[in-house]
Design brief:
about 425 residues; nine-stranded mixed β-sheet; seven-stranded parallel β-sheet; 8 helices; 33 strands; about 15% helix
Length: about 425
C-alpha cells in the first residue's frame, strides 16, 4: 500500500456568486488574478512549496476551465506517478448519486481516494484565497502539540470578528470553544478554513456525521471532534491572506499587487507562484504607449496609457485610450480613444472605440447592490460593448450588447445590462 505522510484536499467547487458575472460561466478558483494567474494557483503553489505532492482537487460548479488549467499538474510539478494532482468531480455511484452538498460532504464522498494513500494527516484547503503559507510549519505545530485537528487562524479586528467562524483558545493555543459568526465575539481569532486532521480522526468524524444534510466542517465535523474530546489547536498565521469573495475585495487584492512595496509579493525567489502559461510573445509597447505602476501580461499590446492597473495576457489597449485603476483579463481588446476607470473586464471581451466606462455620479446598483458596488464597472466574459457609449458606476454588463441597449448612448450608474443567457 502506498503511504503518504500528508495529502491535501483542495475544495474548488464553489460558484462564488458574490463575484456576479465574473463567475456566471466559470468556477471562482478559475477566475484570473494578477494578470497571468488564476486564484487556484496560490493554494496549489503553496502545496508544492511546502513539500505536499499529493493533492485532490474537488470540483463541481462549471469545472471545465479549472480542469483544463490544472491538466495533469505539470506547472506545479504535480505530475507524479504516485500522488500528484487528481481532479475529483462528483460521480455516479451504484446506489445513490448526489452532488457535493457541503464542504465536508465533498471530502466524505472521496474517502476511497484518501484511503488509497493511507496518510497520517489530511490537509483541507479552500481554492479561493490569495496567500502564501508553509503548510509544513503548520504540520510541525500539529505534531508537537499532539493535536488531532489543527485550525489555521488569523487575528482580525474585533469589530469584524462577527463575519467569521471564531476560535477561542487558551494560553497554549488549545481550542476550548468556537462560534460561527457570533453577534458578540469572545475572541478575534478567525478560522481561515485551513485544517490539518489526523486521518483516523477525520475518517471517524465524517462517517459518524455522514447523514447530516449539507455536511460542513464548521457546523458538524469540528464540533463532533470537540465533543469527543479530541485535542484541537489553533495555529496562528500572520501573513497576507485575502478572501477574494466580493468584487471589491477582488479588485483591492489586484491593486495591492502594484503597490510600491506590495504586501503580497509575486516576485519572491524562494516561494514561486506557478501557473499554466500559454506560449505567447512578449509585451509590445508602441511609441506613445505609457505604462505606469502596472502589471502587464505576456502578449499584451499597449498603444495607449495604462496607469495603476492589472492587464492580463494577450490584451490590446488601443491608441489614445486611458486605463486607470482597472483589471483587464486575458485576450480582451479595448479600442481607440476609450476611458476605463475602476473597471473589472473579464476575458475575451471586445470594447469598441470611444467607449467610456466608470463615468458620472455614483448611484447604487438597482438589482444587486450587495454585489455591484464600490464605484466599479464589471463586464462579464465574451461581452461586446459597441462604440461611442458611456457607462456609469456600480454597473454590470454581460453579453453581446448593441447601441440600442444604451439610451442616448449612456448606461446610467447603478444599471445592470445582462443579456438573455448571461444571467448569473
Amino acid at each position: 500500500m502506498i503511504k503518504k505522510e500528508m495529502i491535501a484536499m483542495l475544495l474548488a467547487g464553489g460558484q462564488g456568486s458574490r463575484l456576479g458575472v465574473l463567475t456566471s460561466k466559470v468556477a471562482k478558483p478559475a477566475v484570473s488574478f494578477g494578470g497571468k494567474y488564476r486564484i487556484i494557483d496560490f493554494p496549489l503553489s503553496n502545496c508544492i512549496n511546502s513539500g505536499v505532492d499529493t493533492v485532490g482537487v474537488l470540483t463541481q460548479y462549471q469545472p471545465l476551465r479549472l480542469n483544463t488549467h490544472i491538466g495533469i499538474g505539470i506547472p506545479w510539478d504535480l505530475d507524479r506517478n504516485i500522488g500528484g494532482v487528481t481532479v475529483l468531480p462528483p460521480y455516479e455511484k451504484s446506489e445513490n448519486s448526489e452532488w457535493y452538498t457541503g464542504t465536508a460532504n465533498a471530502i466524505y464522498q472521496n474517502l476511497d481516494y484518501m484511503e488509497t494513500y493511507n496518510p497520517e494527516y489530511v490537509l483541507i484547503l479552500s481554492g479561493d484565497h490569495i496567500y502564501k503559507m508553509d503548510y509544513e510549519v503548520m504540520l510541525d505545530f500539529h505534531k508537537q502539540n499532539g493535536s488531532e485537528c489543527t485550525i489555521a487562524v488569523m487575528p482580525v479586528p474585533m469589530e469584524e470578528a462577527k463575519r467569521f467562524g471564531i476560535i477561542i483558545a487558551d494560553g497554549n493555543r488549545q481550542i476550548t470553544d468556537f462560534e460561527e459568526k457570533p453577534e458578540h465575539p469572545r475572541s478575534n481569532l478567525a478560522s481561515m478554513g485551513i485544517y490539518i486532521f489526523n486521518w483516523t480522526t477525520l475518517k471517524e468524524a465524517l462517517i459518524a456525521k455522514a447523514d447530516q444534510p449539507n455536511l460542513d466542517f464548521g457546523k458538524h465535523v469540528i464540533p463532533y471532534c470537540h465533543e469527543k474530546g479530541a485535542p484541537m489547536y489553533a495555529y496562528e498565521f500572520n501573513g497576507y491572506w485575502k478572501d477574494v469573495g466580493t468584487l471589491s475585495s477582488y479588485w483591492e487584492a489586484n491593486m495591492e499587487l502594484i503597490d510600491i512595496v506590495p504586501e503580497f509579493n509575486l516576485y519572491e525567489e524562494y516561494w514561486k507562484i506557478f501557473t499554466k502559461s500559454e506560449i505567447l510573445p512578449p509585451q509590445y509597447v508602441a511609441p506613445g504607449g505609457v505604462i505606469e505602476r502596472s502589471i502587464v501580461g505576456e502578449g499584451a499590446e499597449i498603444f495607449g496609457e495604462v496607469r495603476n492597473s492589472v492587464i492580463g495576457c494577450g490584451v490590446t489597449i488601443g491608441k489614445g485610450t486611458v486605463v486607470r485603476d482597472s483589471i483587464i483579463m486575458n485576450n480582451t481588446a479595448v479600442g481607440d480613444n476609450c476611458l476605463l476607470c475602476r473597471a473589472i473586464v473579464a476575458e475575451n471581451v471586445i470594447i469598441e472605440d470611444h467607449v467610456q466606462l466608470g463615468v458620472g455620479e455614483e448611484s447604487p446598483n438597482e438589482i444587486a447592490p450587495h454585489i455591484y458596488n464600490s464605484g466599479l464597472v464589471t463586464v462579464g466574459e465574451k461581452s461586446f460593448i459597441p462604440g461611442s457609449v458611456s457607462v456609469g458606476k456600480n454597473t454590470v454588463i454581460s453579453g453581446i450588447t448593441s447601441p440600442e441597449d444604451y439610451p442616448n448612448g449612456y448606461l446610467h450608474s447603478g444599471k445592470s445590462l445582462i443579456k438573455a443567457g448571461d444571467e448569473q
